[in-house]
């Protein structure tokens, strides 16, 4: 990385105002504990290098044709604040460590016509970022995340996430925040891009072409998920919202359940990926979450599917635990699992984050006792909060691979 030695008051010598613009053609360094504000449209020319280690406030448009970056030792923050629409453009990727979107000019004040990359955190305070209309993209780097995304502020367009941490994609369409959640593998080189569409998937993806287990498909919305780097299959969670999802998908029936479906380009049909549904009791705008491990990538949406026929088994799964140390229901007990040592048990929370993963699960020592064995956003060895989780049990009976999924309830009652 280039070393910037120019203090902010010297850096201003490289800038000038041209027809209502603030133009940078040299080295501009916003040092830690300092602040630079641009009331005019900011234009960083191809010869311009901008280092943001302090606070940079853009009240108007922002264009980057050169280098915009930060030093890892700092905690620089860029603010897009205004009362008029702001165009974020440029031929080069702008790298921001922290960024804040807060514009009161309307519901969709930000026009993203370039690629910007977040190194640490993006705060969605006020205003939707329109990347779809303007062919832009927001990238979250290895350890980056975001806060405050809601119907008032999210990305309408493509969002990419790099790395192996579990991630909520802050995507939506029109005026609705409709995130997807990804639980990933161990490869830090993973990269995925997601976009949500509040529209029909089109004639190239006919809803009449589907697995026999699929009854009804949500035809008014879908997510497009691509795997840009990596080869692992993620655990995907999709949200349901009464503002966008048809009412029929909120009706419970004894012989059906919600599932995630994916358009398979090879088979030319929608395939049933399965799923477990949880009801959300948080303050989120959406009310249900469907979670499953996917078999591929592409277009995804929600569907009403037939309840899976589980092969006859001599296993008895006790799906409630109370890890309070009283010797009763202290662990997730699967009676008979010792007969099938070639097995794996995975447990996920309602956001699709894996909290436990063990091979050769048994009835004595390799058992889930309400503590996280996860990584990323869930600390290893930490007691998990009470609530609804879901499990995936995979084992082989003879030569037949069997997979079971279901709910697991954790109670912390003393």
Automatic annotation (TrEMBL):
It comes from the Bacteria. Keywords: Signal. It holds the Pfam family CHU_C. InterPro entries: T9SS_type_B. Residues 1-19 form the signal peptide. This is Gliding motility-associated C-terminal domain-containing protein.
């Amino acid at each position: 990385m280039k070393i910037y030695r120019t203090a902010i008051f010297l850096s201003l010598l490289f800038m000038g105002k041209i027809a209502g613009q603030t133009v940078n053609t040299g080295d501009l360094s916003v040092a830690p504990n300092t602040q630079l504000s641009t009331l005019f449209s900011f234009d960083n020319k191809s010869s311009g290098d901008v280092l943001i280690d302090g606070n940079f406030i853009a009240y108007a448009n922002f264009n980057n044709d050169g280098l915009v970056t930060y030093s890892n030792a700092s905690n620089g923050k860029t603010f897009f604040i205004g009362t008029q629409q702001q165009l974020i453009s440029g031929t080069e990727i702008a790298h921001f460590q922290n960024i804040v979107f807060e514009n009161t000019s309307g519901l969709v004040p930000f026009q993203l016509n370039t690629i910007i990359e977040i190194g640490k955190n993006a705060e969605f305070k006020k205003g939707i970022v329109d990347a779809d209309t303007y062919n832009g993209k927001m990238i979250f780097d290895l350890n980056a995340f975001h806060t405050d995304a809601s119907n008032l502020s999210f990305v309408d367009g493509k969002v990419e996430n790099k790395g192996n941490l579990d991630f909520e994609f802050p995507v939506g369409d029109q005026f609705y925040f409709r995130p997807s959640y990804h639980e990933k593998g161990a490869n830090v080189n993973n990269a995925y891009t997601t976009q949500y569409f509040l529209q029909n998937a089109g004639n190239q993806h006919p809803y009449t072409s589907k697995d026999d287990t699929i009854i009804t498909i949500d035809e008014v919305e879908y997510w497009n998920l691509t795997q840009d780097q990596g080869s692992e299959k993620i655990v995907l969670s999709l949200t349901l919202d009464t503002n966008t999802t048809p009412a029929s998908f909120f009706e419970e029936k004894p012989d059906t359940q919600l599932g995630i479906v994916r358009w398979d380009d090879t088979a030319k049909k929608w395939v049933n990926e399965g799923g477990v549904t949880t009801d959300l009791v948080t303050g989120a705008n959406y009310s249900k979450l469907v979670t499953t491990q996917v078999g591929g990538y592409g277009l995804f949406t929600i569907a009403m599917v037939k309840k899976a026929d589980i092969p006859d088994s001599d296993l008895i799964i006790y799906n409630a635990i109370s890890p309070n140390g009283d010797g009763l229901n202290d662990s997730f007990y699967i009676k008979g699992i010792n007969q099938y040592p070639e097995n794996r048990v995975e447990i996920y929370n309602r956001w699709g984050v894996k909290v436990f993963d063990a091979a050769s699960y048994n009835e004595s020592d390799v058992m889930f006792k309400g503590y996280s064995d996860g990584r990323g956003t869930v600390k290893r060895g930490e007691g998990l909060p009470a609530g609804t989780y879901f499990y995936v049990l995979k084992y082989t009976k003879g030569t037949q691979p069997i997979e079971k999924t279901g709910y697991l309830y954790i109670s912390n009652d003393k």
